[in-house]
Amino acid sequence: MPKMVVEMSALEVRRLGHGTVKKTGRKSKRGQPTTALHAVGGVSGLYLCCRPPAALQATGARSWILRTTVGSRRVDLGLGGFPDVTLAQARERAREIKERIRCDGYDPIAAKRATKSALIAEQAKQRTFEQIAKQYYEKKCLEYSGRDPHKQARRLKQHLDDYCIPALGQIIMGELSPRHVVQALGPIWVKKTPTAERVRATIENVCEIVRNDGVLTNGLNPARWKGNLEHFLADPKTIHSEEHQPTVGYEALPRFWNLLIDRDTIPARALEFQILTAARPGEARFAEWQEIDLKEKVWTVPGWKVKGRKDKRKDHKVPLTARALEILRSIPRDGGSYVSVR
C-alpha cells in the first residue's frame, strides 16, 4: 500500500524549509543544512524541494518536483520555482502531465530535449556566415601543425578576409545558397583559379559545421562541387593548367652535382644536404639540432613536421650519409636550436 500523504494548505507549504543532517557521516556532519523533499499531497509524487542557502544568500531556493514513472523509468520532473509557481498551479501541472503520460504515452523528458534541439537549430539558422567562419578559423588554428602553422593560419585568414567575408559575411546561414557562392567565386574563378579553388573549399568547410544541424536548405552544402557548383562554374582543369617547376633529369645529375659541390655558399650546402636526405625544402630549412644524432647517424624528423603524414605522432627517421654528416659537423654551433647548413 502506498503511503498516504496529507494534503497541505498553501500556508503550510510556505512554512516548509530545508532540513539538517541527522547523523555524522564521511561527507557531512550532524546538524549541517541539507536539501529536503517535502511531499505536499493532492497529487501523488508532488514534492517541494527546499535547498539550504548558498554562500552570501539569506534564504535557500525552493522548487517543485514531480516524481513519476515514464515507461519503465522513474524520473524527477521540474515544475518551476516556488513561490513563482503556486501550490495550486503546481498541482494542476502535475495532474496534466500524469494524465498525458497515462493516456498518450507522453515522455516529458524527450519532449524537452526535442524542444531544446529545435531551438538550437533555429538559433543556428540565424547565425551569419561570418560568425560560423570565425568559429571555423579558431578551430583550424588549434589543428594546424607542420613546420609553419602560423603561415597556414595566415593564409586561411587572408582567404576569409579577402574573398569570403566581403561577399558572404552578412548572409544568414539558413539562407545561404549555391547562387551566393557562385557570386563570391565568379570574379576570381578564371583569373585566379588555384586561389578560387581553395576559397571554395574553405567555404565548403565552414558550411559543414552547421550542415548536420539541419541549418542548410535541404541539407545541401551550397559550396559542394560535385553535383552542385560544377553546373555553374567552368571545370578548373579546362581553364587552368598547372605549371610545374623545371627539373633536372637523372642523366644530367652527375654534372649538376659536380657544379653544386664546387660552390662554397650556404644555399649550395643546404641543397646538397636536402638531396642527400631526400627531404622537403621546409624540412631541411627547419631542421633542429635536437633532431640530429651524429653518433647514430640518424635525423629524426617529428611527425608533425612531415607533410602528408596521417599519424602525426609517428616520427620519420632519415639515415645520414658520410657526406651529410660531414656537412653537419662543419656547421658552427652558435647555441641556436636550428641547423644553419653551410
TrEMBL record:
The keyword DNA-binding applies. It comes from the Bacteria. GO terms for biological process: DNA integration; DNA recombination. Gene3D superfamilies: 1.10.150.130, Integrase, DNA-binding domain (3.30.160.390), Intergrase catalytic core (1.10.443.10). Pfam families: Arm-DNA-bind_3, Phage_int_M. Residues 129-227 form the Phage integrase central domain. Keywords: DNA integration, DNA recombination, DNA-binding. The keyword DNA-binding applies. Residues 40-114 form the Integrase DNA-binding domain. GO terms for molecular function: DNA binding. Signal peptide: none annotated. Belongs to the 'phage' integrase family. This is DUF4102 domain-containing protein. It comes from Hydrocarboniclastica marina. The lineage of its organism: Bacteria, Pseudomonadati, Pseudomonadota, Gammaproteobacteria, Alteromonadales.
